Task: inverse folding
């Protein structure tokens, strides 16, 4: 007598489900890291853009170029920045320290030097108050974790 197996057994179905679960367990965290890295890269690109526009602002407005430039000063120069909470502080050597606060990330540094993902911190990891961006005094930036 010949058996005609046209269906899938329960064991075969369970094996397929287990394999799909393993693939999902491996790929979901990797996708999360990719998304976070791309968001951090966007923050660094915004910091570079802020630095460049601060230089342009000071070139065009030498009489009103303060040591600290905030989002109010640069609003006509910048579009497409992910956050309105940013400031740029001109160091004594002419370089800029830029601080950006988004919903998820915080960046503070010189985009020419600190342009890697390790320079961008997850906002919930900060140990200090970060409501200072538009009112800080030079050199009074918070410490990062």
Result:
């Amino acid at each position: 007598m010949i058996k005609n197996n046209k269906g899938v057994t329960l064991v075969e179905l369970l094996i397929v489900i287990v394999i799909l679960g393993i693939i999902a367990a491996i790929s979901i965290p990797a996708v999360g890291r990719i998304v976070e890295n791309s968001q951090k890269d966007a923050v660094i690109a915004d910091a570079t853009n802020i630095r460049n526009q601060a230089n342009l602002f000071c070139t065009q407005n030498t009489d009103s170029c303060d040591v600290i430039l905030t989002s109010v000063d640069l609003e006509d120069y910048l579009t497409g920045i992910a956050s309105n909470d940013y400031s740029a502080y001109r160091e004594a050597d002419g370089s800029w320290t830029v601080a950006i606060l988004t919903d998820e990330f915080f960046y503070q540094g010189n985009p020419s030097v600190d342009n890697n993902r390790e320079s961008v911190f997850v906002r919930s990891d900060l140990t200090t108050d970060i409501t200072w961006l538009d009112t800080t005094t030079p050199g009074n930036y918070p410490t990062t974790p």
